[in-house]
């Protein structure tokens, strides 16, 4: 009788250990994947900040052109201002907060659209296009827009890896135990007219 009790206790202990190992291993995997998402989000923020940093010089350059449409560069300045008004903490937590993520993406998309309109308008100013300073800014902006597209894609891939792990067995069975720590990560989504970075072509 005592032998059976010991066997029963041993089985229970073994089951508890197995469950603990499964939970521990899954927890560690989610932490690792979550850190990969955070790291890639930091890269997204970096490239967006690089674009924002180019705006003052770009605006100053086009303002110097005779009769350049004032409303065009004002729109860029205002869009950049809205990006700057995003709270750093909110931007940092955006992958886990759908509302903050939507605000961040909307502000960045508005700046991208305003820049795209400005660059199209510049086509009407051949003298401005020919200046060395503007050509340099154009090349930097084009490279930055391409990098934004790449980093957004990499972020989505990292978020997908995390969400897939989170929503499959065994993680899905106990992920709620850890509260908001392992909330589903948000994705960048293509919008109408914004599936590709703005075209910057001054060769015409």
Summarize the entry for a quick read:
The protein is mainly alpha-helical.
Low-confidence stretches: 194-204
**Rg, nearest Å:** 25 Å
CATH superfamily label: LemA-like domain
- The oligomeric state of the chains shown is single chain
**Taking all residues together, what is the mean pLDDT?**
86
CATH class equals Mainly Alpha
> Can you write the helix and strand succession as a string?
HHHHHHH
Can you describe what's shown?
It is rod-shaped, with a radius of gyration of 25 Å. It has one domain (2-182): LemA-like domain (de novo design (two linked rop proteins), Up-down Bundle). It has helices at residues 2-63, 70-84, 88-93, 98-122, 126-129, 132-166, 171-174. The chain is an all-alpha fold and 204 residues long. Helix content is 74%, strand content 0%.
């Amino acid at each position: 009788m005592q032998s059976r009790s010991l066997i029963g206790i041993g089985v229970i202990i073994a089951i508890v250990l197995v469950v603990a190992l499964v939970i521990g291993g899954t927890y560690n995997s989610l932490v690792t994947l979550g850190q990969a998402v955070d790291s890639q989000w930091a890269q997204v923020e970096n490239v967006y900040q690089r674009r924002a940093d180019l705006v003052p010089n770009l605006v100053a350059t086009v303002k110097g052109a005779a009769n350049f449409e004032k409303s065009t560069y004002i729109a860029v300045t205002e869009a950049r201002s809205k990006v700057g008004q995003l709270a750093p903490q909110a931007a940092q937590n955006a992958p886990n907060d759908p509302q903050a993520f939507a605000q961040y993406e909307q502000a960045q998309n508005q700046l991208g659209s305003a820049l795209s309109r400005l660059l199209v308008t510049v086509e009407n100013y051949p003298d401005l296009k020919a200046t060395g300073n503007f050509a340099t800014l154009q090349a930097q902006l084009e490279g930055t827009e391409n990098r934004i597209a790449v980093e957004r894609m990499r972020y989505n891939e990292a978020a997908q890896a995390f969400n897939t792990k989170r929503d499959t067995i065994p993680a899905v069975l106990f992920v709620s135990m850890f509260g908001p720590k392992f909330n589903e990560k948000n994705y960048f989504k293509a919008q109408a007219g914004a599936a590709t970075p703005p075209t910057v072509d001054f060769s015409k």
